[in-house]
UniProtKB/TrEMBL annotation:
Gene Ontology CC terms, in alphabetical order: membrane
Written domain comment of the UniProt record: The DHHC domain is required for palmitoyltransferase activity.
UniProt entry keywords in alphabetical sequence: Acyltransferase, Membrane, Transferase, Transmembrane, Transmembrane helix
Segments forming domain Palmitoyltransferase DHHC: 153-298
Family in the record: Belongs to the DHHC palmitoyltransferase family.
Listed name of the protein: Palmitoyltransferase
PANTHER family in UniProt: PALMITOYLTRANSFERASE ZDHHC16 (PTHR12246)
Enzyme Commission number(s): 2.3.1.225
Record's keyword annotation contains Transferase: yes
Transmembrane region(s): 76-100, 112-133, 195-218, 263-286
Membrane topology classification: Multi-pass membrane protein
Domain of life: Eukaryota
């Protein structure tokens, strides 16, 4: 009996030790899993918790992927937009020199010829100069040196001090007193805002000038294109009943077709740009008269609405 007990105890001791070790390991794993869960839950709460959370903060969080996409697309496609502006402007200038200028020299009196030559070339030089300066002049950045001035806030994107009246720029990737313009491949800020506004103004004036100067020619060209379409429809049944050698030659030559279509293209493009860019120019002119940026205009409008609900009147812009 004693020998059996000794054998049984000798066999059970390793099993009990294995159970104790397994239990300890299981407890350690459970404790680690519980600690990881608590840590993850605390991190999640710390990331999501904000005592100032409102609808604007939630919308900003939801639109972060859109902002990221716009930032990267703006960086890569800025050169494409600049090239597109140059190509469209060059096409309009080429049409003016090839199509409009010869007619002006042949049919206009000397006084009007001098006016068109002087004003047209002056306006073109102003557009080229201010566009070049707008895309090459840096907008300006806050000072990078350390100072005792207390920062108003911290930029959420680059985690750096953000002085007053500055915003994060997707092209410069830093806080600037500017707004990004994809068709400039640059930001519009303190140092190049006058060039940007002057470019918009002179481009609008040039488009209005081209649209007014080519209005009569546009109507004639549009009527000619409509006659081309009508003659093409009339020629199709006749050509179907005739042989190849009996087909009459085209009424309008290729040069005439290209001329009329170029005039229509010039007027439509200039009119569209004049409307769009003219509205942008008026908007910036209103901002200049009030000494505000676009974002400040939005902030000041919300502040005035908030004070009106309380029965108070805003003292002025919040800068």
């Amino acid at each position: 009996m004693r020998s059996r007990r000794r054998v049984f105890s000798a066999v059970m001791r390793p099993c009990v030790k294995c159970l104790r070790v397994g239990r300890r390991r299981g407890l350690r794993l459970a404790w680690r899993a519980q600690e990881l869960w608590r840590y993850g839950h605390l991190c999640l709460r710390s990331l999501l918790y904000n005592s100032f959370t409102n609808s604007d903060a939630v919308l900003d969080s939801l639109f972060e992927p859109v902002y990221w996409l716009v930032d990267h697309v703006t960086r890569w496609f800025g050169v494409v937009f600049v090239a597109l502006v140059i190509v469209l402007t060059s096409s309009i200038v080429a049409i003016v020199y090839i199509c409009l200028l010869p007619l002006i020299l042949q049919s206009y009196p000397p006084g009007w010829i001098c006016w068109h030559l002087v004003y047209g070339h002056w306006n073109l030089l102003m557009i080229l100069f201010h566009y070049y300066m707008a895309i090459t002049t840096p907008p300006g950045h806050p000072p990078q040196a350390k100072s005792n001035t207390v920062a108003v806030s911290i930029c959420r994107k680059c985690i750096s001090p953000k002085p007053a009246r500055t915003h994060h720029c997707s092209i410069c990737n830093s806080p600037t007193a500017a707004s990004a313009m994809a068709w400039l491949n640059n930001c519009v800020g303190h140092y190049n805002h006058r060039y940007f506004f002057s470019f918009c103004l002179f481009m609008t004036m040039g488009c209005i000038y081209c649209g007014i100067s080519s209005w009569d020619m546009f109507r004639e060209a549009y009527a000619a294109i409509e006659r081309m379409k009508l003659l093409e429809k009339e020629r199709l049944p006749v050509a179907a009943n005739q042989t190849y050698y009996q087909t009459p030659p085209p009424t309008f030559s290729f040069r005439q077709r290209a001329f009329h279509k170029s005039i229509v293209y010039l007027w439509v493009l200039c009119s569209s740009v004049a409307l769009a860019l003219g509205a942008l120019t008026l908007w910036h002119a209103a901002l200049i008269t009030r000494g505000e940026t676009s974002i400040e205009r939005h902030i000041n409008k919300k502040e005035r609405q908030r004070l009106q609900k309380k029965g108070r009147v805003s003292a002025g812009p919040v800068l």
